[in-house]
Write a structure and sequence with these properties.
FliQ, bacterial flagellum, flagellum, elongated, cell projection, mainly alpha, membrane
Length: 91
């Protein structure tokens, strides 16, 4: 028996929500550090393209260290929820 359209849309929505939640800390950190570095470059008139790479890499590494455990729990919770839905999806 096939899944209904509503079920497929629900699973897709849940997947995109989890993906957005997991990507947000890394993307917002990169955005914030990039903005601060760009502001610094425009104030000091230093136009070095590679200047923003190291601070961004360090900041993103720090964010991954701080939020990695939470990200793993979120992914595990989502996966467990999907596996628990399998019997209802097949019937």
């Amino acid at each position: 028996m096939a899944m209904s359209d509503a079920t497929v849309i629900e699973i897709a929505f849940m997947s995109m929500t989890v993906a957005a939640k997991l990507a947000a800390p890394v993307l917002l950190t990169a955005l914030g550090v990039g903005f601060v570095i760009s502001l610094f470059q425009s104030v000091t008139q230093i136009q070095e393209a590679t200047l923003s790479f190291v601070p961004k890499a360090v900041a993103i590494g720090g964010v991954l260290l701080l939020t990695g455990n939470w990200m793993l729990r979120e992914m595990m919770t989502f996966t467990v929820q999907l596996y628990e839905k399998i019997p209802t999806l097949l019937s």
